[in-house]
Design brief:
alpha/beta, eight-stranded mixed sheet, 14 strands, globular
Length: about 260
């Protein structure tokens, strides 16, 4: 089944299935609790998704984790907005969710949505999961494992020292040694790994080109990400601009 990255959007298409990740509905509740007054963007994201469904002519929407934001528990904003958000989308198309680590209690808020196992699901030769836990051995049969969770970004710094980040797609390979420490048997060819940027424009992310204190590029959180060859990973901006290998993209931050 063909995979297509949608230019300008943190979304991809597998056949006629639109795939997105990390909506974090209700994140504004935590911003307000921290003293940052911010209106809800839930309706804006719903409109964006509906526009993408029309643009791509997708017949199914798959969200690979973190539909809601609060963890643990559910905020008042999520109780109010998440059921309406999902119900309205479910009246436009079939909606499926692969739960992420922020999605505790989501099934109660989404009676019109198909809840897939949190371990993930296979779609057209690609394994879709959130990325916060190990995928099952079945995922090793895939052409690539596609995850969210890390809200992948690249950090830039200009000559004047201004630092900013941009959302990116990351494609890389998995390393056999760390994978073999978890899986009893590995196939001759391991699947690739694709990191999805977050759909919510308000949430931060993991700068894949920012080294840790030991000077290593880790690439993000989650066990499968730690098995990735991030230094040789390929990064692409949402508009399709190819940035090259992550290891060659200098970050403004240096290890101590």
């Amino acid at each position: 089944m063909p995979l297509k990255f949608i230019t300008g959007e943190p979304a991809l298409l597998i056949s006629r299935s639109l795939v997105i990740a990390d909506l974090h509905l209700g994140a504004e509740h935590d911003y307000r609790a921290a003293g940052i007054m911010m209106p809800s963007r839930t309706q804006d994201m719903q409109a964006s998704i509906e526009s993408l469904l029309r643009k791509t002519k997708a017949s199914r929407l798959i969200i690979i984790g973190d539909v809601k934001h609060r963890v643990p528990g559910t905020s008042f904003q999520e109780e109010k907005e998440v059921p309406t958000f999902l119900s309205k989308l479910a009246h436009k198309t079939s909606v499926e969710v692969v739960p992420g680590n922020h999605d505790g209690g989501l099934a109660r808020l989404s009676p019109d949505v198909v809840m897939r196992p949190s371990e993930g699901t296979m779609l057209g030769g690609f394994w879709l999961c959130h990325g916060h836990a190990w995928p099952p051995a079945e995922a090793l049969k895939a052409e690539a494992i596609i995850i969210g969770h890390n809200h992948s970004q690249v950090e830039f710094c200009d000559r004047l020292g201004k630092v900013w980040r941009e959302k990116v797609w990351v494609r890389t390979e998995l390393k056999r040694k760390p994978m073999s420490a978890h899986y009893k048997k590995l196939p001759k060819k391991l699947p690739g790994l694709i990191l999805m940027p977050a759909f919510n424009p308000l949430v931060g992310g993991w700068a894949v080109n920012k080294p840790n204190d030991e000077g290593e590029l880790v690439g993000g959180l989650g066990p499968i990400t730690k098995c990735a060859d991030i230094g040789h990973a390929l990064a692409y901006m949402l508009d399709g601009t190819f940035l090259g290998e992550v290891g060659g993209l200098n970050s403004a931050h240096k290890p101590r």
